[in-house]
């Protein structure tokens, strides 16, 4: 069944989202990371479309969604979460599995901890909810902040949004470059280079620190509600190391944890393996 490319107006903003599969089947809501979009889930969606109903939105300022100015839209994790909540309500998704990667983690876990009744299970790919597992790049950002090195922080942030920085997030020292489809990072680069996007991405990047105080809330949600959880993790991610995956066992009783020789975007390398795990997990 072919993926449908849809748009919907939420709070006056046109949001793009991919939809596939039969709405009568179990629904999976897929929340993407930085600096990507729903495009990162395309292969997983294709592999799961016969068995599930899949919804993958682009946040405001990402991918094919509208990008209002920073005067007209607050690019914070709290506000994007609110937009995604209204998106979920508009599509009448009352019960679903939630798949999250990178930025999708703090957005999705805000939703899950607020509306646990919506969540049938969590599928987590390289998205931290614990201080354990902050990788070399996350530590580098933290050091710039601790030392109040605004020049260093700005330069590194700009690198992560540059063509070279985006490409490096897809590649790692343990993979040959020809194993990654260049369409993926070239797509992200093209989206990032659109007029005004750098300013909006900078606003959200700067807001990332608001996620750390939420960790205790999310851990309490895990401990209290014990959501059924599948964790798939690329261990060569420079943002989030494998300790981030293992830390979920501190509060979840029986998380399924699978570590891969992949990077930040390990779905580019292991889509079939992850799709099989998802099928077994939901069944």
Automatic annotation (TrEMBL):
Keywords annotated in UniProt: Hydrolase
One Pfam family per UniProt: Abhydrolase_1
Keyword field contains Hydrolase: yes
Stored InterPro entries: AB_hydrolase_1, AB_hydrolase_fold, Epox_hydrolase-like, Haloalkane_dehalogenase
Lineage, top ranks: Bacteria, Pseudomonadati, Bacteroidota, Flavobacteriia, Flavobacteriales
AB hydrolase-1 domain ranges (all copies): 27-269
Name of the protein: Pimeloyl-ACP methyl ester carboxylesterase
Gene Ontology molecular function, alphabetical: epoxide hydrolase activity
């Amino acid at each position: 069944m072919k993926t449908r490319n849809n748009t919907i107006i939420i709070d006056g903003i046109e949001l793009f989202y991919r939809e596939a599969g039969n709405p009568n089947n179990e629904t999976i809501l897929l929340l993407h990371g930085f600096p990507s979009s729903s495009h990162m889930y395309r292969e997983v969606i294709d592999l799961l479309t016969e068995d599930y109903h899949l919804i993958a939105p682009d946040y405001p300022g990402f991918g094919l969604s509208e990008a209002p100015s920073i005067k007209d839209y607050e690019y914070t994790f709290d506000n994007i979460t609110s937009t995604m909540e209204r998106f979920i309500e508009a599509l009448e998704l009352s019960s679903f599995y939630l798949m999250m990667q990178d930025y999708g983690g703090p957005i999705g876990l805000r939703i899950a901890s607020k509306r646990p009744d919506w969540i049938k299970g969590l599928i987590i790919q390289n998205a931290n909810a614990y201080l354990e597992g902050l990788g070399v790049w996350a530590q580098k950002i933290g050091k710039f902040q601790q030392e109040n090195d605004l020049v260093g922080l700005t330069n590194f942030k700009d690198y992560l949004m540059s063509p070279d920085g985006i490409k490096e997030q897809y590649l790692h020292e343990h993979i040959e470059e020809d194993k990654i489809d260049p369409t993926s990072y070239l797509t992200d680069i093209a989206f990032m280079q659109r007029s005004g996007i750098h300013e909006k991405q900078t606003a959200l990047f700067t807001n990332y620190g608001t996620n750390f105080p939420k960790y205790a809330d999310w851990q309490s949600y895990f401990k209290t509600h014990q959501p059924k959880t599948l964790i798939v993790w690329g261990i060569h991610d420079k943002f989030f190391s494998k300790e981030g995956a293992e830390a979920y066992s501190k509060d979840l009783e029986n998380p399924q944890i699978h570590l891969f020789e992949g990077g930040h975007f390990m779905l580019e390398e292991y889509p079939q393996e992850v799709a099989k795990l998802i099928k077994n997990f939901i069944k």
